[in-house]
Amino acid sequence: MINDYIQDNKQRFLDELIEILKIPSISADSAYAGEVRKMAEDLSVRLSDSGADHIELIETAGHPIVYGDKIIDPKLPTVLVYGHYDVQPPDPIDLWESGPFEPVIKKTKIHPEGAIFARGACDDKGQMYMQVKAFEAMVKTNSLPCNVKFLIEGEEEVGSENLEDVIKANADKFKADVILVSDTGIMANDIPTITTGLRGLSYVEVEVTGPNRDLHSGLYGGAVANPINALSKMIAALKDENNHITIPGFYDQVETISEDEKTLMANAPFSVQSYCDALGINDVSGENGYSTLERATVRPTLDVNGIWGGYIGEGAKTVIASKAYAKISMRLVPNQDYNVITKLFEDYFKTLAPEGITVKVTPHHGGEPAVTPVDSDEYRAASMAMETTFGKKPIPLRSGGSIPIVAMFERVLGIKTVLFGFGLDSDAIHSPNEHYGLFNYYKGIETIPLFYANYAKLKSN
Predict the structure, then answer these.
(1) Residue 103 — φ and ψ, nearest 5°?
(2) For this structure, is 153 an active site residue?
């Protein structure tokens, strides 16, 4: 019955996704604050139309949270669905093959049935809306076996700065038995995967200052420390010849994964050559002594996300810049506290500055790592659902990405999370030409109701 409803409404489900992808809900840029609110208000209506009750925009110090629920029986288990409606900035615009907020459907080698190209298509509007439409299919066919609550925020891409305060102030409202998140992915469309771990994050901005003004590079070059030169050397010093991070104490609390988990990762159907081909590179790179999957999931990292300073316009301007800047992210693994790591970074980075240079480090946001158990009813319900729709048992695998709210939910609400995403690494999230396969969108809508049915059954035993 549910599958018939999904089949009958497939085109509408896609049309609705296209409409919300047209809204540039960029949380990082205050110029788009009105569009972010418009997205929240639009989603409230769509959530109501899909069958949710008690729709509410919960105001925060930043962008609002969209809430709705369906309580069919207080004695039944409750699933709290988390998602986010904000998106990353689309820059650089000139690398998009079509407008970032002008959704188009194109066939690709990986998505021969078509993929929808737009900012937020996979991260996270497509995956979040998958949850809404699966919920609608259950409600409209009188097949909903659990209570459901929706918490869809508008600040995930800027660190969910206000979410914890809202959760603490409304703990009863968000009380549930499990949290369901679709903001992760699978290894391939024929290799179902359930994410069982996430890395944490420490994100900082550094400002390096030399002279009190930009200087003529002919008159002062060679006599005054150049902030751009200094910053480049300081960044290079953060890793050694083995790509090992040099910050003292950085690895002190790093979790060592078990031999069983190492074996599981080694046996995963992963091709380094296919990985390189998809990225247009001739080889992989990373910390010596670890496989590509280990480097990307269970080892901590340090990467420069942006660097700027001096003159970058057309033609020449011979100056020594007064300042240079960089944004740096560190992905963390279990047992690493992002506040501790941020302080270690700040203290060490300042020691790398040469004479004539001053350094300012500004922490932006961070989050704790998280690992979810594979021996719980929640995980089993998700695994059984994927096995039904994909025809094979999913692989449990940690992700290299960060969703800081997972650790926060467990700390504040005492609830574990099931990471039930359907995206692919090749979907170019956070990059130009982000997209989401139609196969993945519909497969998610088809699979999610089975999670609910399995979960309700397992919890009743």
Answers:
(1) -55, 135
(2) no
